[in-house]
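chain below, 136 aa
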Amino acid sequence: MELSPLTTAEPQQALALCDALWEQPYLEFRLLAASLLGQIPPVPPEPIISRIQAWIQKGTDAKLIDAMITKGTIRLKQENLPIVIRLAENCLSSKDRHLQKIGLQLLLTVIQDPRVEKKSTTNLYIDSTSGEIITS
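prediction:
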């Protein structure tokens, strides 16, 4: 069943469904939550970003983190790339190695995703001291 039309038509209900799925202790339910999150229109982006940040914490299964980074950010990358870059920048500037790794993974998905307009990602530089992402 294609859920994209439903997530687009009813984004608040889709967010509630994502939350309910994430509350379940089963990997499959949480993978579905990550996938659905990536189909929700990111307007405004904050509800999606807050869930991503909450769900990628240390101790989260690596498969779930990967799903969150690849599938949970699909529409964000397509429709609001600067927010995704800012999220990666925040992760990279953290002292927490776990978050730094997530920031790098997030940037890698931006570069590798064929749906993301490449002219937006051709000149990304990471300041080695501050972790700041510099675009030009």
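Residues 4-135 form a domain with the Serine Threonine Protein Phosphatase 5, Tetratricopeptide repeat fold (CATH 1.25.40). Residues 97-112 form the longest helix (16 residues).
thats it, cya
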